[in-house]
Amino acid sequence: MEKGKSVVAELATSLRDVEVTPRRKPAGLLPAASFYSRTTKGRPRKLVSLCLGILGQHLEDIITDISEFATFFPPHIKLAIVSIARRRRLLNDEVLISLADSSWEILDISGSDVSDVGLATVANISNNLCAIDISRCERITAAAVSEVICHCPSLEILRCGGCPRSESTARRSVNLLKPKLNTLEEDSWEELDTVEIGGGAESLRWLVWPKIDGNSKEIISMECPRITVNPQPSPFDIRGSKVPAEALASVPLDHSIIADIDPKTWAVAAAPQRPTIPTDPNAPPEMSIAEKFRLAYVEREARLAPKRAKRERQQRRRAEREYVMNDINAKSVALAAQVSKYLRKS
After folding, report:
1. Which of 34, 209, 257, 276 is the most buried (most CB within 10 A)?
2. What sections of the chain are H helices per DSSP?
3. Element (H, E) at 281
4. What are the backbone angles phi and psi of residue 216, rounded to the nearest 5°?
């Protein structure tokens, strides 16, 4: 016991003069401008993010029954599941409609299988949408964009393009974005209080369309001066408003939703690569695929030739037998031959 006390006393004495100072970052270094900066190695993930990660890893097993328990999830959890499903190539109309919530403000369905039906339904449910990404969506047309503009008056950010079908949809939607006055036939100004005088995307400020054609860009700049096309990150404000991160093409629209979730959640394991065998420089040149097919066909024909000849002989004998059985003259000749043979023997 006395020995243990002496050891502790010696350690305390040796550590008394040790000064521990906190580690400081070098001056002049700024944090990296990345939307993944929230998730650092020094900070543990939240419990809800870990649970979402486990849920996302097994999303294929429960995606068909997502509508049965989607009502038990809060809105932000539903949106996170949508983001994970999009990254795992599982997002379609059924999944999106099952998880849709009226409190959503952003919607990222880029590169998914969502069609006009799914987008129009969500636009009717989520009227508070401020940012939508429909880029690389092969099944969305200008009809769905019209529904979004009609039911989402707070829409400020629209992201489109990225594939031939989406580029065509964006070009057809340019006229829908332009402000216009509706034709009204009311008798007095008092009756116009409940009638929409204008139309178009009145709140739209940022249009992210990386491969916009010159004609569409000119139309937007001339008739929609409030809309900024493909904004770039800048420390200064553009037209009196700072560019939000959601309006930058390099930043996924739903980055803030899945910032704390492990990216391994939606990572798909790649197929293992076959080991490459080094070629021998002295080896003969490899045979072409066409030559391999030709040699394989010749070998098959040679292997099946005896079977085909046997089958042809059988078919010939069967045809002769059927001819003898069905033709009267042939029967007479055969019967006469048998009678003559019998008479010779007798």
Report:
1. 209
2. 2-15, 47-57, 59-62, 66-69, 75-87, 93-99, 116-125, 142-151, 164-172, 174-177, 214-223, 289-326, 328-345
3. none
4. -65, -40
Give the separation between CA 83 and CA 91, rounded to whole angstroms: 9
Which tokens is 58 given? 């097994």
CA 322 → CA 309, 319, 328, distances in Å? 20, 5, 12
pTM for the whole structure: 0.62
1/227 Cα distance (integer angstroms): 80
Report the amino acid identity of residue 321.
R
Euclidean distance between CA atoms 91 and 63, whole angstroms: 9
Q: What domains are defined for the chain?
A: 91-182+197-257 (3.80.10.10)
DSSP-based three-state secondary structure for 133? strand
For 40-88, how does the pLDDT look when each residue is reduced to its tens digit (9 = 90+)?
456 788 888 888 888 888 888 888 888 888 888 899 999 999 999 999 9
Residues 6+ apart with CB under 8 A from 316: none
Q: Under DSSP, is residue 22 helix (H, G, I), strand (E, B) or coil?
A: coil
Q: What are the Cα distances from residue 163, in Å, to 110, 123, 209, 212?
A: 11, 23, 11, 12
Write out pLDDT tens, residues 189-205: 455 554 454 567 788 99
Tokens representing residue 261 in the block: 């979730």
Q: What is the per-residue burial (b if ≥16 Cβ within 10 Å, else e) of 316-341?
A: eeeeeeeeeeeeeeeeeeeeeeeeee
Question: What b-and-e string marks burial along 180-198, b requiring 16 or more CB atoms within 10 Å of the CB?
Answer: eeeeeeeeeeeeeeeeeee
In angstroms, the CA 110 to CA 121 distance is: 17
Question: Between β-strands 206-208 and 157-159, what pairing exists: parallel, antiparallel or unpaired?
Answer: parallel
Element (H, E) at 71: none
